[in-house]
Amino acid sequence: MRDEMKIGILTIGNELTNGRIQDTNSSLIARAMQGQGWAVAGMISVGDDDDAIHDALAHLLARVDAVIVTGGLGPTADDITTAALAKAFGL
Known about the structure:
Blueprint: E1 6-12, H1 14-17, H2 25-35, E2 39-46, H3 50-61, E3 66-70, H4 81-88
Parallel strand pairs: 1-2, 1-3
Helix pairs in contact: 3-4
């Protein structure tokens, strides 16, 4: 039997942190991961901000085996997830 994998969930978007949109993705992902036998060890929502994304990712990666990231991938200028993650990993 495999060890229980610890998962972190990072949701990104100003619409989440200012309350305009309710974060339903985290709970949906958490249920799906738990259904597969994985432990959700942390969930964080941050706005569209390089430093906030970097800090949240570092916080989660220090505690979990993998992080699932959602949000901030649209066509507008504030959707910076791809660039922020590349920067966080030195790419």
